């Protein structure tokens, strides 16, 4: 079912939504906080913990302040889009499901060289790791495919399979374009055609300058401390049903994590201090993970 | 005699683990069969990106019957004890055998059908397979490298059944993921399995895949008047990533040929797993690359080549960005950035390390005839490229890029070369620096690590060597030996550290040298015999070891060694009775053999001294060789332990003197044989 015309950026997303919706996923919206990767959405990081089955798919705009190139590099963005799928427990035919999704967006594995290349994913700030691959299409990494083994420092059971598509890269491939800013965002035949650059170039320019030059380091540091202090307080607080406030606490972990990324992009984190920051965030995340597992197990 | 076939089909297995998995599978299966008492004539294993396969030939259809004798209670033991024994052995009372007042039971174990045992064996082998890294999947608890998808277990054409987490072994497998038939197909033995895979676009054995890659690739590039830059390590890896290897020649944008060739090669090899291509006789790259696809596409791979070419261009474009940016900042200006990079919590920042390397390089340069100021400069800048964008992106290019940036900013060519080569040698196949300046910095880099980590108690232990100090010490040894440098180690280490070197560092070097000698087929005992002299000049040590080895290979050497041991044994035995006679004077009166040995010794001493003073170790061995005949004759005719006290004293003194002149050449007591 390869498309006649290559899919636009938004049609790529709609195709993936349709495909994964038909396979039982809840289609979530992007999480409404600044995050560095789709994994950090509570729909993955928390739902991967505990015993309950869960299938979800969503787009997550992902901010990487250090990667900003002021809109001048055709392949690097400080904010890009991940398409995230989590299947818990991972079904036996998950690879086939994934390959089916590629076919759905017009990539024919009899014409293109699709390969699963060892890449063991880990995210030290959320204490998560798993085994899997980066998936190559004609030598380009288009997805990350992971079987989670630990999240928040805790062993997971059942195991979740996670798929992360780099939407811009996939679109570059599907559309055969060399610069991300030239991608067709909507249908080129539509009355008001927009490229990816029309939509995001200004944002890349401004935020690159903000993140690498203009962000106020003292303020970021202050905010980081505030967020860090909030997490244990919220986990100690109780809701109406007597539960710890895990979800609000986790929001503050995400905020702390993003503030760390901003500080890093500003060059405000000495190499020696780096591990200590990562360790602090990981501890916060682990506290949330433990509280979440206790809550899920109790239900 | 029958055959067993086991296939474990899984999701993609990391290439780097496959060869080890094939070895482990053969080992575990062999051990398991042995334990089960199942003889076989041949065992073979295969590993690829999706399957591990075992085939065992020449198995019996049944296990042999076995008899086991078990010792029971004494005769006349309480009835309960005897009953218990009967219960546990399943033997009837009348079948018990009495011997030496004790009951014995003979238990018969009838041989079981081999297929049954093989199923159990396969199951337990899978359950405890030693993957370097493994995972669980879904709701299961089995650990495997990636999820298992199907299992073949066939003995003599029949399924030898077992189950792993609900997955039953059978006779079905699947071919290539994209090119094979959509469904699985059945096999009945190994030949059919192998042929079936080939028909479904899977080359079972790694060697076959490699041949397919090399053959195809060579033909492709030759057709364009080019040649492949061969790379056995890459070939192994690529052969582990594809089931139906299909070489494709792609074009690289020639605009990137002005980048340092190492950059393009690193991108190709490390990031994309492409082979580089060049024109015959040229060292630079040609604007092409060879990638190995896993499918034969209908368009002959045109789309795949174009896609890979685009990826390569994007990667090289990124590298070009860093290359252009990096060259705007001189290396010296990057030293401040190194201040923020910790080398080790107890050994300071990279900047401090750079300053130490600089001082050490200056010191070494003064001793080996290099320009000390140039060495200090190269040493200070050697680590500066760690702060560049390109090395940040491609860490494997450290050093090499520093050399390029140094040349670009107009530093002298030998300084640039010293920066470029200072990590060398990086492995057994890597060459050592040859230019004096490059040698100074390369030695300084390694010695700084060794002295520093030993000083903070981080010497390697067992298999733990997190700072690669063994490699560093070996690098120092190779640089010194291959360049014939006269650098006595203990003085050098003390001068660098400003105090005597940490405990164990010199012994660590001696140990590494022995290992290196052994790896080259040398004798560790000869190294011990020479090290015992306490020398720390590696060049001299090796010359002495070589001369000693040559001497011991002669008849004179062999016999003199025996004479030395005999003398040592006598002296040791006599020493137990009381202190050996001291004093220098040796009577030569009689018998003539004693006089002859004395005369030979008297001539030998100055000859050995002269030879040693000029480091003519072969000459020293020749001088010792002249002792051989008189020593032999002496032991044949003369009784050392004479009843005449005077004679005994003088003979012991003579033996001590002979032994001592030999010990000045090498400690023959440590030579084995």
Write the layout of secondary structure elements.
The complex is a heterodimer of chains A (299) and B (673).
Chain A: H1 9-21, E1 26-27, H2 42-45, E2 54-63, E3 79-88, H3 94-104, E4 114-118, E5 122-123, E6 128-137, E7 140-151, E8 154-155, E9 161-166, H4 167-175, H5 196-214, H6 217-236, H7 246-265, H8 271-298
Parallel strand pairs in A: 1-2
Antiparallel strand pairs in A: 2-3, 3-9, 4-6, 5-6, 6-7, 7-8, 7-9
Chain B: E1 2-10, H1 15-35, E2 42-47, E3 51-59, E4 66-74, H2 79-89, E5 97-99, E6 102-109, H3 114-127, E7 148-155, E8 158-159, E9 163-164, E10 167-168, E11 172-173, E12 185-186, H4 190-199, H5 206-222, E13 227-228, H6 232-239, E14 246-251, H7 261-272, E15 275-278, E16 288-293, H8 302-326, H9 335-339, E17 342-344, E18 348-349, H10 350-368, H11 372-381, H12 389-393, H13 400-408, H14 413-420, H15 436-455, H16 469-482, H17 489-497, H18 505-519, H19 524-531, H20 538-552, H21 555-577, H22 592-613, H23 617-625, H24 628-637, H25 645-663
């Amino acid at each position: 079912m390869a498309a006649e015309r290559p899919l636009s950026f938004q049609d790529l997303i709609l195709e993936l939504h349709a495909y994964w919706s038909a396979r039982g996923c809840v289609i979530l919206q992007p999480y409404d906080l600044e995050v560095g990767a789709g994994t950090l959405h509570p729909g993955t990081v928390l739902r991967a913990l505990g015993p309950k089955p869960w299938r979800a798919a969503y787009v997550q705009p992902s901010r990487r302040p250090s990667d900003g190139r002021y809109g001048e590099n055709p392949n690097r963005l400080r904010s890009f889009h991940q398409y995230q799928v989590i299947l818990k427990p991972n079904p036996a035919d998950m690879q086939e499901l994934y390959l089916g999704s590629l076919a759905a967006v017009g990539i024919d594995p009899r014409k293109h060289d699709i390969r699963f290349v060892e890449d063991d994913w880990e995210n030290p700030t959320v204490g998560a790791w798993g085994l899997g691959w980066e998936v190559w299409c004609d030598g380009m990494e288009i997805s990350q495919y992971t079987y989670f083994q630990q999240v928040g420092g805790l062993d997971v059971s059942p195991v979740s399979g996670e798929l992360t598509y780099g939407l811009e890269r996939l679109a570059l491939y599907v559309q055969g374009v060399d610069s991300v800013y030239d991608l067709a965002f909507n249908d080129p035949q539509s009355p008001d055609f927009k490229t990816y650059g029309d939509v995001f170039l200004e944002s890349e320019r401004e935020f690159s300058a903000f993140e690498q030059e203009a962000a106020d380091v003292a303020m970021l540091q202050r905010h980081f401390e505030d967020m860090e202090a909030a997490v244990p307080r919220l986990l100690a607080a109780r809701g109406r049903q007597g539960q710890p406030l895990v979800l609000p606490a986790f929001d503050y972990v995400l905020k702390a994590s993003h503030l760390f990324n901003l500080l890093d992009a500003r060059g405000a984190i000495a190499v020696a201090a780096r591990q200590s920051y990562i360790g602090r965030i990981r501890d916060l995340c682990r506290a949330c993970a433990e509280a979440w597992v206790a809550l899920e197990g109790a239900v | 005699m029958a055959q067993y076939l086991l296939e474990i089909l899984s999701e993609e297995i990391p290439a780097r683990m496959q060869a080890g998995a094939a070895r482990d599978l053969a080992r575990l299966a062999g051990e398991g069969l042995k334990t089960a008492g199942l003889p076989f004539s041949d065992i073979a294993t295969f590993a690829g990106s999706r399957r591990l396969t075992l085939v065992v030939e020449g198995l019996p259809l049944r296990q042999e019957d076995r008899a086991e004798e078990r010792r029971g209670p004494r005769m006349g033991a309480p009835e309960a004890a005897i009953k218990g024994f009967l219960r546990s052995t399943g033997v009837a009372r009348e079948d018990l055998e009495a011997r030496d007042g004790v009951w014995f039971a003979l238990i018969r174990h009838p041989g079981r059908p081999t297929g049954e045992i093989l199923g159990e064996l396969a199951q337990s082998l899978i359950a405890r397979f030693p993957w370097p890294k493994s995972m669980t999947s879904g709701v299961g608890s089995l650990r495997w490298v990636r999820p298992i998808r199907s299992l073949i277990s066939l003995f003599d054409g029949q399924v030898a059944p077992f189950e792993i987490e609900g997955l039953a072994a059978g006779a079905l497998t699947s071919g290539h993921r994209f090119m094979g038939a959509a469904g699985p197909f059945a096999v009945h033995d190994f030949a059919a399995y192998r042929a079936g895979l080939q028909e479904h676009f899977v080359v079972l054995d790694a060697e076959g895949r490699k041949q397919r890659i090399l053959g195809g690739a060579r033909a492709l590039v030759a057709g364009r008047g080019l040649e492949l830059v061969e790379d056995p390590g890459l070939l192994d890896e690529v052969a582990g990533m594809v089931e139906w290897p299909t070489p494709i020649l792609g074009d690289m944008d020639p605009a990137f040929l002005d980048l340092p060739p190492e950059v393009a090669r690193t991108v190709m090899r490390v990031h994309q797993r492409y082979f580089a291509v060049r024109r015959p006789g040229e060292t630079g790259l040609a604007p092409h690359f060879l990638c190995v696809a896993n499918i034969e596409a209908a368009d002959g791979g045109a789309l795949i080549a174009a896609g890979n070419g685009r990826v390569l261009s994007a990667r090289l474009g990124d590298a070009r960005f860093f290359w252009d940016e990096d060259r705007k900042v001189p290396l010296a200006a990057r030293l401040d950035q190194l201040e923020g990079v910790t080398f080790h919590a107890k050994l300071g920042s990279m900047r401090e390390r750079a300053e130490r390397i600089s001082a050490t390089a200056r010191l070494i340069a003064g001793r080996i005839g290099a320009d000390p100021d140039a060495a200090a400069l190269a040493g200070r800048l050697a680590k500066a490229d760690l702060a560049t964008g390109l090395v940040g992106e491609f860490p494997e290019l450290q050093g090499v890029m520093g050399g390029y940036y140094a040349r670009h900013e107009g530093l002298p060519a030998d300084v640039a070369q010293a920066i470029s080569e200072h990590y060398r040698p990086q492995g057994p196949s890597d060459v050592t620096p040859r230019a004096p300046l490059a040698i100074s910095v390369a030695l300084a880099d390694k010695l700084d690590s060794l002295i520093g980590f030993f000083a903070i108690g981080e010497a390697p232990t067992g298999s733990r060597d997190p700072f690669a100090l063994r490699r560093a010490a070996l690098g120092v040894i190779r640089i010194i030996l291959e360049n014939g440098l006269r650098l006595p180690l203990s003085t050098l280490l003390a001068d660098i550290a400003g105090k005597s070197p940490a405990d164990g560092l010199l012994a660590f070097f001696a140990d590494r040298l022995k290992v290196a000698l052994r790896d080259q087929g040398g004798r560790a005992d000869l190294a011990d015999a020479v090290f015992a002299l306490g020398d720390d000049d590696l060049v001299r040590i090796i010359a002495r070891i070589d001369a000693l080895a040559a001497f011991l290979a002669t008849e004179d050497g062999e016999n003199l060694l025996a004479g030395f041991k005999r003398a040592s044994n006598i002296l040791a035995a006599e020493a137990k009775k009381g202190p050996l006679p001291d004093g220098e004077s040796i009577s030569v009166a009689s018998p003539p053999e004693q006089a002859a040995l004395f005369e030979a010794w008297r001539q030998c001493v100055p000859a050995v001294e002269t030879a040693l003073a000029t480091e003519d170790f072969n000459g020293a061995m020749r001088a010792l060789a002249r002792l051989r005949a008189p020593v032999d004759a002496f032991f044949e005719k003369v009784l050392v332990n004479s009843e005449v006290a005077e004679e005994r004293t003088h003979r012991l003194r003579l033996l001590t003197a002979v032994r001592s002149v030999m010990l000045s050449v090498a400690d023959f007591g440590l030579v084995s044989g």
